[in-house]
Amino acid sequence: MAFEVKTFENPGSKKLLVQMVDDHDLELIEKEVSYIRELTGGDDFCLKTVRVKSWNHDLSPWPAPAVFGSDNFGDGAAETLAWLLREVVVESPTETEPDRRVFLGGYSLAGLFALWAGYQTDRFDGIAAASPSIWFPEFDDYMNSHPIQTGAVYLSLGDREEKTRNPVMSAVGERIRKAHELLSGQGVPCVLEWNKGNHFKDADLRTAKAFAWVMRNC
Fold first, then answer.
1. 4-217 is a CATH 3.40.50.1820 domain
2. What is the pLDDT of residues 148-201, one digit of tens each?
3. 20 with 50: CB under 8 angstroms?
4. Closest CA to 132 of 104, 101, 167, 166
């Protein structure tokens, strides 16, 4: 397994942002970086994007039927996370870098992957899940039965995302409200932000807002 990694901003920064992306995300990445700079007041950071080849397989925690078309969801998330920790995150903070922070984020299924990863390892100081695919089958049950291991969680959703005829995806609003309630009730610093529009609006800005929040709150 190998993914294409690109680095933006300061490679030596002690704030590392990691984002799983597809080609569409990469088309918007310069705008996203600019938004992050603006939202954080020019804070120093390094963003590493990881291009995913098989979106529905590489980012899915377990198999599930396709929501649109015939592209079913696979179970490649565990292998993807292992590669990510080994090749991108590399090591926990060393004695010479005690204040190093690592944040994992993403949009849509990449946001779900980031949230799921927060349950697998304590290597991420914060999770930036922008419009995550939290409708994913049985993910709510998973959250209810496992402890999260990250320091803080940002959640967001478009205010029209739950207004869909698809019976699986229409559960996203209820699921994300319950996720916010669950994490907050467990004492995890967590915010749920509602954005204007459907799932396909302002993905770059929404992801930037997610990263900016965890950078400020971790």
1. yes
2. 999 999 999 999 999 988 888 999 999 999 999 999 999 999 999 999 999 989
3. yes
4. 104
